[in-house]
């Protein structure tokens, strides 16, 4: 057979196959970012053309009523968030993110809320009505973290009930169902306590895997040596890295196309013990600026590099960037690391990637544009 006679059917079947793929995936690739109300970046300044989904962070959880609320000082910017970011990109979708890394008290409130049916109902009803009245396209649960087997079971019940309520609301209102996502730990367990994989798979559109904060300069566990804060591959035998976490989620049975990889738009600065010993895991003495948590956002790191003519290194083996000048050493993700992680997400057929958080990027959106 000549190639000419086979070309057309081949093209057609390829096209049909691609259409099927797209339908079965259900959800197109996610290029997401969180926006945080206190970051200093007005929502109107986000280049929303670079994203498919933007997460508005954070709505609060009332510790007495278990209702989801937005503080009065945030109401104006949260209620106009969707309209604001859609001005430059009418197809960008928005999700109201609930909770966040607010510490032990917030985590306790989540646990108390999820433990009883009437409290879960308060959470579910109030979050759906808030999302609709502010024109969000979805809800994102940031419970950091469910940390006992009971918490995990209740988290599963919560997302199952939330999905049922969202489906019911969509049917009654005639509106497209709200998207449902959750920000989860880097791995499928929280220090050996497994997430409720089946409920997550059945009830959430996807999970945002927080594949960062593996090493930090202010933490007891990692202040004595520099470290790659969000390495993709193992830098030590500890196996704390993005790939190990993603692999654990897939191994637990959560489909790759429900997994979105987190990218940090920030890093951590250590103080080197010896300015001449400046590699990965070099001896250090806590954060470079005493009294801080050592974190610096990407544009601050770029400013530090240019102001101090710092040396910059990309380590492609573990996938991290770092820079140093004098006794200051900063581990972070620059365009090389972000690009390698985006390629990884595509190779692993993940649903996409998200950034925490968009205001960390530089004035040229260098990270947000990389590999997107
Ligand atoms: C479904 O939605 C309707 C209208 O909002 C409400 O009255 C009803 O209780 C809901 N049912 C369930 C099972 O959530
Ligand atoms: C990258 O980091 C690893 C882990 O510390 C190290 O073994 C390797 O030599 C580094 N590679 C380069 C090119 O510096
Ligand atoms: C790093 O991970 C790879 C693959 O998971 C493994 O083969 C290797 O032994 C690990 N290296 C260290 C130092 O743990």
TrEMBL record:
The answer to keyword Hydrolase applying to this record is yes
Quick one: signal sequence residues? 1-25
A single Gene Ontology CC annotation of this entry is: extracellular region
What GO biological process terms does the UniProt entry carry, in alphabetical order? carbohydrate metabolic process; chitin catabolic process
SMART domains, per database record = Glyco_18
**PROSITE patterns from the xrefs?**
GH18_2 (PS51910)
Which GO MF term does the entry hold, naming one? chitin binding
Keywords of the record, alphabetical order, are: Glycoprotein, Glycosidase, Hydrolase, Signal
- GH18 domain residues: 29-372
Family matches, as Gene3D superfamilies: 3.10.50.10, Glycosidases (3.20.20.80)
Short name of one Pfam family: Glyco_hydro_18
- PANTHER family, sorted: CHITINASE (PTHR11177), GLYCOSYL HYDROLASE FAMILY PROTEIN WITH CHITINASE INSERTION DOMAIN-CONTAINING PROTEIN (PTHR11177:SF383)
Q: Which family does it belong to?
A: Belongs to the glycosyl hydrolase 18 family. Chitinase class V subfamily.
- What is the protein name for this chain? GH18 domain-containing protein
Q: Which source organism does the UniProt entry give?
A: Malus baccata
Q: Where is the organism placed in the taxonomic lineage, from the top?
A: Eukaryota, Viridiplantae, Streptophyta, Embryophyta, Tracheophyta
